[in-house]
Amino acid sequence: MSNPHNGNEAAGASASDSVIGQELRSVHRKTESLPPEARQRVLQEELYSLISVVGAAPLVELLLERAFELGATDIHFDPQRDGLHIRMRLDGVLHNILRLDQQYVQPVISRVKLLANMDITDRRTAQDGRISSQVLRHRRDVRVGSGPTIHGERVVMRLMPDDSQYVNLAQLGMNRTQIEQVDRGIRCPYGVILSVGPVGSGKSTTTYTCLSALNDPQRSLVTIEDPVERRIDGVNQVQIDTRYEFGFVEALRGILRQDPDVIMIGEIRDAETAHIAIRAGLTGTRVLSTLHAGDTGSTIDMFREFQVPRMFLADAIKCVIAQRLLRKVCTKDREYFAPDVATSEFLKLSPEQAREVRLARGIPSDANFHTGYFGRTGIFEVMSVDGEVRDMLLGGKPGRTISDFCHTNGMISLEESAREKVLDGVTSVEEVIRMMI
């Protein structure tokens, strides 16, 4: 059943499509020849220009177009006492784009909800919607969520990743040793590969990269997701729907009866899902999944909290990947400097090393949205579960004891991975401190 909409608003939006399209094309012609940094600089001017010419609704189309160009992941429409604050998340950080006066708030919110096939008359409950890639003429969908606040209705648009752009493990930021460890794990004929970290640490991207490496016509691959973030040819992708009591547990039980070779579970959220995933990994299926855990050691402890028998853990888990995302120093506008004493101590540099090292820092400019950073890279801690690590799991050793043993025997910690990125000029000490402390 389709959602009810305000007929007058919908008709008005339809009637003005040609005017909106003409204005957007005019603005685009003025800016398409400009470099990306200039486009960023004139973004606010474009938006205000549209308001003055044809009203607030075209803002949504232009915001989406510019968000895709800039590599944004989210657009926030936040109602406040003084109007609607619009922000974009770039490289994991929200940036203020502009503030709209109260007269423009409702037309903009209604336009977003109309595009997402949401009920524009319901402003008191939370809603979820989707703007399809066909509507946007992009290969990416946009997920939309709305809900009430004390100052009015709030809407967040989440821009799904580009389906056509898959990266390998090296491009994610792993070093050669870590790539070899993960590759051994995913090449095992059965078992569980886990990507762990907090929200926004790149776990899904790592899992999709592993899935892409296993995508072969001779295998049956199935994903269970909430939501489906990337569409992959050759993979059966399942969207869970809690409205019909079709969650991860129900989907996983059903898929295990369909002869899968590889299952990707979007997230292990509870003990029941954890038990089923581990058992699937023991019975000849490769399982890829994510978990909210701080590092490799705490991952082991979380599965024990789920009361998964230690024998099952030792036999099923093949590899645990802990990760974070750090902003990269802008390659276009940067400078190099010698570290001071405090920075040298943080990086564990000897006096001789400190005299030789030159670190990079970004220069705020239009090219990097005046942050000094552009793009992100991952830092990783990869634990292979084999040999003595497996014996320690069987013996019931705590996760911290196991991870300390792995560090002693060569596992690169998240902190060490971050320091390597600083010394290589990829990121800065300030960014490491922001994310790790």
UniProtKB/TrEMBL annotation:
Bacterial type II secretion system protein E domain: residues covered: 256-270
SUPFAM superfamilies in the record: P-loop containing nucleoside triphosphate hydrolases
Keywords, alphabetical: ATP-binding, Nucleotide-binding
Gene3D superfamilies given in the database record: 3.30.450.90, P-loop containing nucleotide triphosphate hydrolases
Protein's UniProt keywords contain ATP-binding: yes
Any one GO MF annotation of this record: ATP hydrolysis activity
Cellular-component GO terms for this entry: plasma membrane
Family recorded in the similarity comment: Belongs to the GSP E family.
Protein name, as recorded: General secretion pathway protein E/type IV pilus assembly protein PilB
Species of provenance: Planctomicrobium piriforme
